[in-house]
Amino acid sequence: MTPTDTAAPRHQLPRLIGGHICLHACMAGLRMAAPLLALTQGYSALAVGLLMALFALTQVFLALPAGRYADRHGLRRPMVLSVIAASGGTALAVVFPVFPVLCLAALLSGGATGAASITLQRHVGRAARDAAELRQVFSWLSIGPATSNFLGPLLAGLLIDHAGVWLGGQAGDLGGYRSAFLLMALLPLLTWWLVRHTPDLPSQASAAEQGRRRAWDLLRDPMMRRLLLVNWFLSSCWDVHTFVLPVLGYERGYSASTIGMLLGSFAIAATVVRLLMPWLSRHLREWVVISSAMLATALLFGLYPLMPSALAMGVCSVLLGLVLGSVQPMIMSTLHQITPADRHGEALGLRLMSLNGSSVLMPLLFGSIGTVVGVSIVFWVVGAAVGLGSRTAWTLRAPAHPPADRRTG
Fold this sequence. Notes:
This protein has 16 helices and no strands.
């Protein structure tokens, strides 16, 4: 691909980031509001864990097909399907705010967000010309989820606490939850408005070629196996923070707005560090950032449950956001360096499937442990595991396929 060919996708990057923010914010807001509604309706931590797991369940089965679909059809067609699923599923929760429908909304919004992420990551990754540009474009793109993880929970929390009063009810009533779900359902429509005119890049693999190969062949590469393991450790940390923090905040009597602010402070910190990553990435190697982040995460997870107030928990959230926010661009850069260009969508799907396979089981495990021995134990167990797993990150020093070997068109 020539510089002229890549100019258009880079020029479109702000619109792609904006679209990513809107679609991901839909899921992030729903993921905060739905468990709180379930708790207020009397459901247990285990039931909330099941609800949280459903946000990842669809992605387990759709990740690989979504990656192959993106390899064949490019950007726009997968995006419009994702918008329909996310908006439609969340709208159901507005009309029927009951636990079974919340579970269905979690399935649809989670699957849609996963498919859209694969599509966008594949698109910008193919537009990059070398390893340095890969780190930069993925640093910019990663701003989307970090920003949406702040906007979604914050907006949902504010509406839950105040919209009921505006409508003649009281704070935290069903009208507030319905208002939050309605706003989340409208956000994906903005995604389509932002990305609909983005030009597609030409496909490099025919349907016949894709049909003759298996995604599992990618796992023959030891670098791919190590990268997926490290990514799983770090993703588990995001899952712990997203799931355990609302439960811990609820146990301590914090309001929905306070919980949303705690989640939002984590997301703001992740956004700030990702804003700096396009410049920092010029001087940093992927394996150094990843291994250092794992050790720092282990330390913060040990301290988090010991924080005595919402302010102290907010400080831990900010530090954790700075640490974990720096990782994803480096993970994505490494993945694109070790994967042939015509299989980027497939590799991204395999990565997402492996992450969300554990994300289905981990909230159930978190909920079970939290019910029996308390949610603080979850922080400490996962922190110890990610600290021990940091040794694997040191083995990611040499990509299997140098950047010069990347086939970009």
